[in-house]
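Forum > Structural Biology > Help requests

Title: Can anyone predict the 3D structure of Imidazoleglycerol-phosphate dehydratase?

Hi all, first post here. I have the sequence for Imidazoleglycerol-phosphate dehydratase but no way to get a structure on my laptop. I'd be grateful if someone could post the structure tokens.
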Amino acid sequence: MARTAEVTRETKETQIRVWIDLDGTGESTISTGIGFFDHMLEGFARHGGFDLKVETKGDLHIDMHHTVEDTGIVLGQAVKQALDGFKGIRRFGSAYIPMDETLTRCALDLSNRPYLIWKVEFSRPKVGDMDTELFKEFHHAFAMNSGTCLHLETLYGDNTHHIAESGFKALARALREAVELDPKTHGRAPSTKGVL
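Reply #1:
Sure, ran it for you. Structure tokens for Imidazoleglycerol-phosphate dehydratase below:
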């Protein structure tokens, strides 16, 4: 059974279409109008092993906030839809990602009880043209809409690019582990409640 989903969302601020295959090969086609954000989402797909298509048209003449946050919303919804009730998955995932002087840790639980712990600091307000404060907005939107309890922490690092990128890669690798099918669940939701 294919674990794919396509979600579209249209508002006065953004028009977004996301398609994802959780069991893909890491191929992606990304277009958000924000070069660095495209780069981050391409890395997310590649290191998660997800096939991903993202088409976002946002009100960039105002700023990048709606584009980034709303893309996080729709990507989260697509992941949750593709998981079909979280049945049969490992549920938990974690990753440590080093990038030169930076080390970032991600731990997550696909619990359908969304939460974000964000312990990431940037030394500069921008990377490329993108405001660094928007990375938290993206991860929060993703967590809330995918049903993920997400803890992301940069343990140390100085370079703004490395801090941002290691966070996306850590999320991807942890999510890759969590969405893996676990034969010991026998196709059930991995919870004593019987449902997530």
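The chain has a mean pLDDT of 96. The domain at 4-185 is CATH 3.30.230.40 (Ribosomal Protein S5; domain 2).
Shout if anything looks off.
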